[in-house]
Input
Amino acid sequence: MARSKDKTPRTPKEPGRLKQMWQVFQMTRRYDSKIVLYMILSFVVPVIIGVALALVFSPGNALTMTLWIIAGVLAGILTMLIVLGRRAEKAAYSQIEGQPGAVGAVLRSSLKRGWVGSEMPVAVNGKTQDAVYRAVGRGGVVLISEGPQSRTNRMIEEERRKVTKVLGNVAITVISVGPDEDAVPLHKLAGRLTKIKKTVTKAEVLAMNNRLSSLRTTMPIPKGIDPMKARPQRGK
Output
């Protein structure tokens, strides 16, 4: 009896780093058939460059040649991991692209430094599930529509008027994520924000975000989707 009382349920161990990388690779390969080719090329090319540099700059010096080759191998491993990370992110977001709340998932997990955004939309159409999200950064205020532009243009203009009323002549950029030809793909949204020209300081970003927080709606709106937990759609 004493032994049974002393036994406590063990918490499951988290997978190691290599196992996590293998799981990410397996998930990515299911949605990206070219991932193996890209990873091989990203590893082989730096190794070839390292060998070429060794032959050009250190012919006959075994130690220096070895260092060049090792540097090429390390660069190849690093490049391969970078490629895997980017392709895995693209594959993860491809599973939820087109679903309500997908933009919120990007704003929650993939915003670059200097940008502030919320997974909760600032405007939503209850019938069509179209939504408008807002992000604030060095590039000013960005309004992001989720859905066809023909249905979201009105919500965008309403939010633009609200922002202008609170902040005055601040730079406002509109980005569309949806089925339109000129829309930004979901996996490129975070990178698109970083390309916006910087017009305000870090202190002004904080001040603008605080002032815009008063415009947040109090209606219950579903949160964004977690791309790492999303279930793949049937038929894919």
Confidence is low (pLDDT under 50) at residues 218-222, 232-236. The radius of gyration is 24 Å. The chain has two domains: 17-94, 102-215.
